[in-house]
Amino acid sequence: MNFVRLIGGFFIGFLAATGRLTLFASTAVSHVIRPPFYFRILGKQMVEIGFYSLPVVGLTAIFAGMVLALQSYTGFSRFSAEGAVADVVVLSITRELGPVLAGLMVAGRIGASLAAEIGTMRVTEQIDALTTLSTNPMKYMVAPRLVAGFLVFPPLVLVADIIGVFGGYIVAVYKLGFNPNTYLQRTFDILETGDVTSGLVKAAVFGFIVTLMGCYHGYNSKGGARGVGTATTNAVVSASILILCFDYILTEMFFSK
Amino acid sequence: MTETAPKISLKDVRRAFGPKVVLDGLNLDVGVGESVVVIGGSGTGKSVMLKCILGLLQADSGSIEVDGEQTVGCSASDRERINHKFGMLFQSGALFDSLPVWHNVSFGLLAQKRVSIEEAKEIAITKLAQVGLNADVADLSPSELSGGMQKRVGLARAIAADPEIIFFDEPTTGLDPIMADVINDLIVKTTREVGATGLSITHDMASARKIADRIAMLYEGKIIWAGPVADIDHSGNEHVDQFINGRADGPIKMAVRA
């Protein structure tokens, strides 16, 4: 009986948390389309989320591309199908690894930073101070960050795609002895517009998820330093899980037959 | 109490957090231009009362009127309009650490798009001068200021938009006695200059005696005594006597674990 109660309590808790998150997201989105707009904050956040994430995302992408080329070569060489290395690298990077790895890396960098920043503002009464100064915190803090995440993730992932494919090219040409022209030709032949656009749509969704979870957990943090620490952990963990869930859902939408 | 309609009127305000009832039928009127200080022990609901007036918390029931206008259950746009009348000095200062001091002071004016950035900086420097800070601090970050200076900046921010009502949340907590007195003097001076109504909460009796026209004591969610500051020493209320004299023995029992 206790076990059933435990399961029931967990399920009700899950539904309540989902409801609170949905309400938070819908309120934030409603502020995105209603003036006043804070363009300066939006610009600052776009630089913070997009530009300053380039090094970490670029490094992740280049090593992912390099490892992918090495591993796929090891596997394909057993069937004399080494030529497919270029196909695997470019399709894996553009469809999956580019957006997912960038999403996970930025969830760690930006999700944690947003939760810590907003959480500290919450526990030091800065969010209350905004309200007393006739400024809606959702409009001033949350909406610009959501828009920034949604807008800058696709170009960030596009750069990651290019760097990732370049990483595979370096290993294939300089370590595995592929002909550079043949490798590039094969890469462009196999690649279709849908492969890139599906990855960019995923990127926009992941950008929204990362900033939403950072803002949500920071905004609802309680207590002092411990509360902010918990909010930061929850932001990264929940964003990472949601990225993987939505990756599957979006892949089903784009590629299932 | 003045005979004109009160600036702020709380009637039978109730607020609970789960089973814990914090405000239990609170009644309080604050007259126009009056400075009322609410005293009471820690955890008696002083901050909750203030947050209910500011709209940061919703009262479960009762009425909170500002200039005769009901604020309990009002729309977000009405709340924003009513909040234009308010200035607030937070206990912790609550300065925005991502913004320089001058931007903190004139934040409300810029948010309401009432002034340009150049004008906002000029106003900020004027307000900083009113609280005894020179223009050098305008470009500093709040983290570069001492606790007393942060309180002054918070006060400058509270009066920047010339509000009709200013709230002070434990304005002298964490300050040495001399700085606390400086802040008390500034509160009296600036509220008079702005011509504002003041509502403060504190458990610092020296501060209460200095800034109040009238003192009210909050205990177990209700105002148990209210009167002119001159009457506080012969209130005839045992709870008030124990509190203002800081005695451990008396009707107010503190929960202390052995």
What's the helix and strand layout?
The complex is a heterodimer of chains A (257) and B (258).
Chain A: H1 2-32, H2 39-49, H3 54-76, H4 85-123, H5 126-132, H6 137-175, H7 180-190, H8 193-219, H9 225-255
Helix pairs in contact in A: 1-6, 2-6, 3-4, 3-6, 4-6, 4-7, 4-8, 4-9, 6-8, 8-9
Chain B: E1 8-17, E2 20-30, E3 35-39, H1 46-54, E4 61-66, E5 69-70, H2 76-83, E6 86-89, H3 101-105, H4 107-111, H5 117-130, H6 147-159, E7 165-169, H7 177-194, E8 197-202, H8 205-211, E9 214-219, E10 222-228, H9 238-245
Parallel strand pairs in B: 3-8, 3-9, 6-7, 7-8
Antiparallel strand pairs in B: 1-2, 1-4, 4-5, 9-10
Helix pairs in contact in B: 5-6, 6-7, 7-8
Account of the 3D structure:
The complex is a heterodimer of chains A (257) and B (258). Chain A has 257 residues and is mostly helical. Chain A is 85% helix and 0% strand. Chain A is built from nine helices and no strands. In chain A, helix 1 packs across helix 6 (137-175). The mean pLDDT of chain A is 93. With 258 residues, chain B is α/β, with parallel strands linked by helices. In chain B, 34% of the residues lie in helices and 24% in strands. Chain B contains nine helices and ten strands. In chain B, a hairpin with a 2-residue loop joins strand 4 (61-66) and strand 5. In chain B, helix 5 crosses helix 6 (147-159) and helix 7 packs parallel to helix 8 (205-211). The mean pLDDT of chain B is 89. Chains A and B meet through helix 5 of A and helix 2, strand 6 and helix 4 of B.
